[in-house]
Design goal:
The chain is of the alpha/beta class. The protein has two domains: 139 residues, HUPs (Rossmann fold), CATH 3.40.50.620; 123 residues, HUPs (Rossmann fold, 3-Layer(aba) Sandwich), CATH 3.40.50. Helix content is 37%, strand content 23%. It contains nine helices and twelve strands. It has a ten-stranded mixed beta sheet, with helices on both faces.
């Protein structure tokens, strides 16, 4: 099992090279076809328009902006893939990224997106990674906006709570887990139950992974009075983890993402890539 098509979101952000570098490296490792995706948002009449200025001026400004953004995104994609032995494709659509990216994602094995940058001035929705993961049904690898020092996947932290979401994330991440030098199954505040954890929380998941050839260990922890997401980040730092795998807990309500606490914490404070699936 390997990823054969990887889709990476390419915009004009100053941090786009970070996610492109990770996507290109993973595509090379997996022997995957790499698709660079760019969305050109449609022209929208300014809400403050009162007819005092020619509409042509607004449209010319819009055209210049989308053309410049496309040029920056394409240049970044070409730079990231230059000199690599990769099968690549550049794909551009006219539409809103939050609408078109989930559709394109259904024909890929893995998406690579960037973490929301609070300093960005681009119109990219701040909840794009989680919205795409929930709407597309495909796993998403989110790369920190601060970048990474090496390709992720050597030491992996798998967040396990015996839920459907965590099982889905673990299954979708199998190509990465099998290639890792070490995988730590982390069970936090785990309790045995007929519908969840077994007698030894995390042990059943570790046994299943070991049958796939994954080099796996189990760690059980207690969040106590701290947020579960903060505990996950702390353990990731303790073990020098370079990739966190987790199920995404949440849903979309009236175009507003309603996330679980751990998901929200990790997506906001991540320092290493986060692989998530819903």
């Amino acid at each position: 099992m390997a990823y054969k098509t990887i889709l990476v979101h390419c915009d004009a952000s100053k941090n786009v090279a970070h996610r492109l570098g990770v996507a290109a490296e993973l595509a090379q490792q997996q022997g995957a076809h790499l698709v660079g995706f760019h969305a050109r948002p449609p022209f929208q009449t300014p809400v403050f328009f009162d007819g005092g200025f020619p509409m042509d001026d607004f449209f010319k400004s819009y055209e210049a902006s989308v053309k410049a953004d496309l040029s920056v995104a394409l240049a970044a994609f070409e730079k990231a893939t230059k000199g690599r032995h990769l099968s690549t494709e550049w794909r551009v659509v006219d539409g809103f990224v939050e609408n078109d990216l989930p559709v394109q994602a259904r024909y890929a094995d893995l998406l690579v997106l960037g973490q929301t940058d609070p300093e960005s001035t681009l119109p990219t929705p701040t909840d794009l990674p989680e919205a795409v993961a929930i709407a597309s049904g495909r796993p998403v690898l989110v790369v920190p906006h601060i970048g990474v020092t090496a390709a992720p996947g050597k030491t992996v932290l798998l967040c396990w709570n015996a839920s459907r979401e965590s099982a889905r994330a673990a299954t979708d991440a199998l190509p990465l887990l099998k290639a890792a030098a070490k995988v730590i199954v982390l069970a936090i505040d785990a309790k045995s139950s007929p519908a969840g954890h077994g007698a030894e929380p995390g042990a059943d998941a570790a046994t299943w992974l070991a049958r796939h050839g994954v080099k796996v260990t189990v760690q059980r922890d207690v969040a106590a009075d701290t947020d579960v997401g903060a505990t996950i980040l702390s353990r990731a730092a303790d073990h020098a983890v370079d990739l966190i795998v987790m199920g995404l807990y949440g849903h979309s309500r009236m175009r507003e993402m309603v996330l679980g606490g751990a998901s929200r914490t990790l997506l906001g404070s991540m320092t290493v890539p986060v692989f998530m699936a819903h």
